[in-house]
Design a protein that fits this description.
The chain is α+β, with helices and mostly antiparallel strands and 182 residues long. The chain folds into 2 domains: 72 residues, Outer Surface Protein A, domain 3; 83 residues, Alpha-Beta Complex (Outer Surface Protein A, domain 3). A 4-stranded antiparallel sheet has the order 11-12-7-13, with helices on one face. Strand 3 and strand 4 form a beta hairpin. The longest helix has 22 residues. 23% of the residues are buried.
Length: 182
């Protein structure tokens, strides 16, 4: 039995969960999410908790069991509290600034790279710490958006310049040795 899959997901009082077969609709103060899951796992509401069970013990159902429960838990957490990913801009002259709701990245190109936020995503920048905060209620969209922003100028191993996740360790490489004594 999946250790994660067998745990029930507690539903806060501010969140409404509607389960109809394999369709789950979750509504909370931050927004609402809908998703259709595989019919191989059963999703039910019991005692103000979401319970995910599987019908048999074959490999495909075991794989879906914990994943389905984790995705539902992320949906409930997202519509009640929300998620935030922090990115750091590192490099001489590199910066991020807001132009309305659009994020403008000045990261060594001849032009600023503009990133439009998807629906439900909000960008914040802090010029002093050179951080970008990507916030919203859908964890998948936040992660994808943060990855796309990082992909504009990924951190490079020689000088460490680029956009990285907060706390991400970049393996540094030594540059050329130069002229050595013989």
């Amino acid at each position: 039995m999946s250790r994660i899959g067998r745990l029930p997901v507690a539903v806060p009082s501010s969140v409404q969960v509607n389960v109809q077969g394999s369709n789950v609709h979750i509504k909370g103060p931050k927004g609402e999410l809908k998703r259709t899951f595989s019919p191989l796992v059963e999703i039910a509401m019991e005692n103000n908790q979401v319970v995910v069970t599987r019908k048999s013990d074959n490999a495909e159902e075991r794989a879906l069991h914990g994943t389905t429960r984790a995705v539902i838990a992320n949906m409930i957490h997202g519509v009640s509290s929300g998620f935030t990913v922090v990115l750091e801009v590192e490099g001489v002259g590199y910066r991020a600034e807001m132009e309305g709701k659009t994020l403008a990245l000045h990261v060594g190109y001849s032009h600023p790279v503009k990133v439009e936020p998807p629906v439900g995503i909000v960008f914040e920048t802090d010029p002093k710490t050179r951080q970008i905060k990507v916030s919203g209620y859908d964890r998948e969209v936040i992660g994808q958006t943060a990855a796309e922003i990082r992909g504009v100028r990924p951190p490079e191993p020689y000088h460490g310049k680029g956009i990285r996740y907060s706390g991400e360790k970049i393996r540094r490489k030594a540059g050329k040795a130069g002229k050595g004594a013989k």
